[in-house]
Amino acid sequence: MRVSLIAVAAATVPLAVSAAGTLGYALGARHSDGTCKTQQDYEDDFDVLSKLSPNPSSTPLKQLDPHTEKLPIVRTYSQVDGAIQDTPCNVSAVILPAAQAKGFQVVVGLWAEALDADIKEFHTYAKQYESTVYAVTVGSESLYRYYHETDGHTTGLSNDELNTAINDYTQAMLDLDLKFPVGTADSWNVYNDGTADVVVQNTNVSILLVNAFGYWQDVSICNASLTYFDDLTQAYTHISTVAGRPIEIWNGETGWPTTPGASYGAAVDGINEAYTFFKQGVCALLGWNKNVFYFEAFDEPWKPASTGLSNQTEPETGWGLFNSDRTPKFPNNDYSCTFDTMETNPNILC
Questions:
Q1: Are 310 and 39 in contact (CB under 8 A)?
Q2: How far apart are CA 192 and CA 189, in angstroms?
Q3: Is 226 left (phi over 0), alpha (psi -120 to 50) or beta?
Q4: Where are the transmembrane segments (predicted)?
């Protein structure tokens, strides 16, 4: 490992600091059959997540919001979810009132390639539920999909296009007298290799989500946490070097899938594998005062396959901390953190 994340923590300055990192959750917009969630569905999701504390009772914090409120947090990806073309889901209309009812905050994701529709949906409700909005991200792996997927730039956005989308949203927000932290979410490697530099240096950007998965690096579970730490260290260090100002940084996605029989090279799906990565990777990062969004809260059986850096595809249906029916996956319902990479029990594989 090149430098420690503890050292990087001193170089990256979040908007506010708490004694332990925050665990948030990526949250999908659909039921297991692909139909759209209702407000009640989101409230039921929040009821489950509100009971999940990654910290043992001896630690001072549970799921603390690094802003002023002590609220749990989720992130979304688009406000008009068009993943199934014939059944788009309007997200803001249902997740924001659910979040307000259950005491959650939301990182509102805007799909940069369909920005106008997402802004219209979000801004219809943004004023009414302003207190539930933690931040706004414009784009989800837009740069990774444009520069690193082998499809001839048919998806995603170039860095200049993404910058324009961020600036366009910022102006639309200010026109409504709204003031949310604005940024983007992308893969660790586009931050580390300089692809995202013009976005990082955009002064309208105040929050960045950095996605990193040991799994998608084609490494075994026993090497996954160190790969995860190393990837984030490289990305966080590069961001702090080129930004020229404080930026709030979160690990925007990480996790490990549990789809039976699936694998990505040396990375093998499994419940004990996911449990091991949570204990040795996610918990350690939280213990180093870094904020993490786990991908994802609940399984999504309707999803198509996804592609990693080696262009191998793998099902993206089994990445949840919980099953799609909200029942727990981990052995003995153990989602606790000791913040110790050396924690052992019979279900930890390494």
A1: no
A2: 5
A3: alpha
A4: none
